[in-house]
Amino acid sequence: MESSERKKRIFSGIQPSGELTLGSYMGALKSWVNMQEEYDCVYCIVDMHAITVRQNPAELRRRAMAQLAQYIACGLDPEKSILFIQSHVPQHAELAWVLGCYTQFGELSRMTQFKQKSQQHADNITAGLFTYPVLMAADILLYQADAVPVGADQKQHVELCRDIAGRFNGIYGDVFTLPEPFIPRMGARIMSLGNPENKMSKSDPEGCVFLMDSPEDIRRKFKRAVTDSETSVRFDPAGKPGVSNLLTIYCAASGRTVEAAEAEFAGQGYGVFKPAVADAVIALTEPIRAEASRLMKDRTYLEGIYRSGAERAEQLARRTLRKVYKKVGFIER
Ligand code: AQP
Fold this sequence. Notes:
It is globular and about 70 Å long. Helix 1 links the parallel strand 1 and strand 2. The protein has about 325 residues and is mainly alpha-helical. The chain binds adenosine-5'-tetraphosphate (AQP). The site of adenosine-5'-tetraphosphate (AQP) has 22 residues, from helix 1.
């Protein structure tokens, strides 16, 4: 294990399988930005995860660049944090192979995301979709990450990563740091605006707000958001899932507490509440949208960032992989 005097390390990633959403911002990116001062942060664009379902190659390339621009526009600082693209660092795939040999078929079969995604893509249930959590474990363990800031939906994968790491350490000694999931208190699970029983997902564009949506689109989406037949703005996720989700979004965007928000809208109907939520979100996303659009025009800058990010990431990744190869009995070249 590396020196215990180093700053604690964070690793996390988002797939460029669609545009960044308000869900991924509130569940993950916001914590990523806040953790940069205190931690040594490694943030990735996980394009290898994205191809577990079929992607259009030109679109995938465009979205990976756009995602890098949006990471920076959200406040990730390439001077402080390592920002890189997963496929640029070959050790991710290499470690994933080894870890796959220490993961049980039964463990992967129990993963909720696999069950859901194999239903959504019933005509293309690939081995990659099944072994996705092994690649995710490799992503995290390569950097000896202490914590992984993710939305609540990814908790199960981080727990599996800990199980795999613990098993490996049990056989070979302390090779991997065991990572903790870091799940925000507010915004851990943003629900779809159209169907508040489901998670807000890139693959459901109408129920989903994208960071790059125009103010008009955002207003329209909130206006249509599903609520209920009452009129009171009250936090009650079981009884009032739509309104509770809007309250969560409002609080995560504005920094208010749920109690303060309930008091602010007491006696006012959804006709006042919904546009106020839209405005709070627009105040959050507009500066990000403007900065990301500016950065997208500067390709040379973005290329410089992902190249130097990959070099820094690879240095760390190589160290871990070398140790793993030695432990399992591979001859050093
Ligand atoms: N709705 C959400 N609420 C809170 N957190 C969320 N995250 C995603 N959606 C929400 C968190 O953001 C990160 C991004 O994960 P990802 O894009 O790599 O994978 P995903 O969770 O599969 O994203 P989608 O939008 O649901 O993609 P599709 O539509 O392709 O299935 C993770 O930390 C996640 O927890």
